[in-house]
Amino acid sequence: MPHWLIQTGALGVFVVALLDSSIIPLPIPGSTDLLILLLVAHQANPWLLLLAAVSGSVIGGYLTWGAGKKGGEALLEKYVPARVLSPIKRWMKNGGIASIVIAALLPPPIPLLPFLLAAGALGMSRKKFVLSFAFARMARYGAVTWLAVRYGRPIIHRWEQYLAGWSDVVLWSFIALLAGGALFGFWKYRHEQNKSRTEENAAHASG
Fold first, then answer.
1. Where does the chain cross the membrane (predicted)?
2. Which alpha helices (DSSP H) does the chain contain, by range?
3. Taking the model in full, what pTM does it have?
4. Cis link prior to 109 (omega < 30° from 0)?
């Protein structure tokens, strides 16, 4: 692993966790979990990584909740596929806190973004959302960090044993995908915002 990534590991985990819970999608599910595993296996401070992962994820989730609250159900329809929108609305209305906790605890491929947007769009209070989401993320990343401390080095040893010639290629590809996915997601988010403003201006002009 590059020395610079180890030295800035907690900051990297914070940024990846924030993006992973934000409205900007990451191309690799479970990116935060994988990064924690790699860094703990290379002797990074597990407590610092856990704090970075939870705080980054809660901030990203709060921003997504805020986007849902501001955009309402119209934003849900833009970002959530129609086939899952109805059940997510039903789950959030019948058991909002439980739905957030379960979605934040379970690993991929369980989608997180639709639940975070729905929590804001359907009126879950800020206090309930932050407390339930923070609790679930603490439990999730706490378990990942424990697994990394307990089994991280043997996993990395196996990795290096069987994929020694490809380690750098895989790692840099992972970093490139994260950066590319974040840039594309940001572009898409800005494009949707500009499109919404154009539609609003057109509506005002015709009115």
1. 6-26, 47-65, 96-117, 129-149, 169-187
2. 3-7, 9-20, 31-41, 46-79, 82-105, 113-121, 126-162, 167-206
3. 0.73
4. yes
